[in-house]
Amino acid sequence: MASSKKLSNDDSSGFEFVKEILDGDPTCAINFDRLQKHNSKGYIIFEYLLCEEHQVVTPHTSHPNRYWHKNSQKFISLFQVATELPATLFLVNYAKKGTKNEDLVKVIKVIEVDKLKGITNEQIWDMTREKFKIWFRKLNKECCQ
């Protein structure tokens, strides 16, 4: 773990830079939130999906298939990358700390995607923020070994 640093600042500046350079052009790319390599599990991709406080859905009730018609290309592309790398793809629904749903986290392990139907095979875990923290930190430590 000594060769890795603690997270401090987010890198939204990179996003803003590319947005400026593209000047309104379609991105034709995909941003994902986290890529890790586990010694025995291989590559792991995490995509964090924020449930805003004003939304009707919570992290436990939201699912990408509910808004597939609006944002399918993002999830199709993530799954293609995961398949070709190969990697395990986890989608993580969460709410901001300090909001009424802050303690709700849903982890979706994506196993199969159909371009028209959405995610067709998955494993889902609804958990608390604390349970997610324990699981995620354990996985992260394993990736540092």
Beta-strand proportion = 25-35%
Shape descriptor: globular
Strand order of the largest sheet: 1-2-3-4-5
Describe the sheet with the most strands: 5 strands, mixed
State the helical fraction.
Answer: 25-40%
Number of helices: 3
Radius of gyration using CA atoms only: 16 Å
Low-confidence stretches: none
Explain this structure:
This protein has 145 residues and is an alpha+beta fold. The chain has one domain (34-144). It is built from three helices and five strands. It has helices at 12-22, 68-84, 129-144, and strands at 34-38, 42-50, 87-94, 104-114, 118-128. The protein has a five-stranded mixed β-sheet with strand order 1-2-3-4-5. The mean pLDDT is 91.
What tags apply to this protein structure?
3 helices; 145 residues; 30% strand; alpha+beta
Task: Give the topology.
Layout: H1 12-22, E1 34-38, E2 42-50, H2 68-84, E3 87-94, E4 104-114, E5 118-128, H3 129-144
